[in-house]
Amino acid sequence: MPLPVMLQSAFERLPSNVQAIVWHDYESHRKSGGLSYVLWLCFGFHYLYLGQLGLQLLYWLTFGGFGLWAIIDLLRIPGMVEQKNEAILLQIMAHYQTAPR
């Protein structure tokens, strides 16, 4: 899976040894769109998988927005996964840029 578009140029500016470490960490922490859809299908666990506990509880309490929210999420899941992966990569890159070498 490619890097999130917004962060590709910042990633390319990192030294090659740091790129390798960041890429390895990103690959082990990034979220999958396919798994998000499977979890959506299985009782709507997709928000929990994407680290949004508050929305997950609200989703369950409203029975997926009485079904409407659940259907809208079918279209929103790819964007939610992309946003989460951008946040993960940004956090990893920030960690290695500030970590002592």
**Shape summary:** elongated
**Unreliable parts:** none
* Tally of DSSP helical segments: 7
Structural class: mainly alpha
The sequence of SSEs as H and E is: HHHHHHH
Radius of gyration from the CA trace? 16 Å
**How much strand?**
under 5%
| Biggest beta-sheet profile | none
**DSSP strand tally:** 0
Please tell me the overall pLDDT. 90
> Percent of residues in helical segments?
over 70%
Compute the separation of the termini in Å.
28 Å
How would you explain this protein's 3D organization?
- It is built from seven helices and no strands.
- The protein is mainly α and 101 residues long.
- Helix 2 packs antiparallel against helix 7 and helix 3 runs antiparallel to helix 7.
- It is elongated, with a radius of gyration of 16 Å.
List keywords for this structure.
single chain; 101 residues; mainly alpha; 0% strand
Write the layout of secondary structure elements.
Blueprint lengths: L7 H5 L3 H14 L3 H9 L4 H4 L3 H9 L1 H4 L1 H31 L3
Helix pairs in contact: 2-7, 3-7
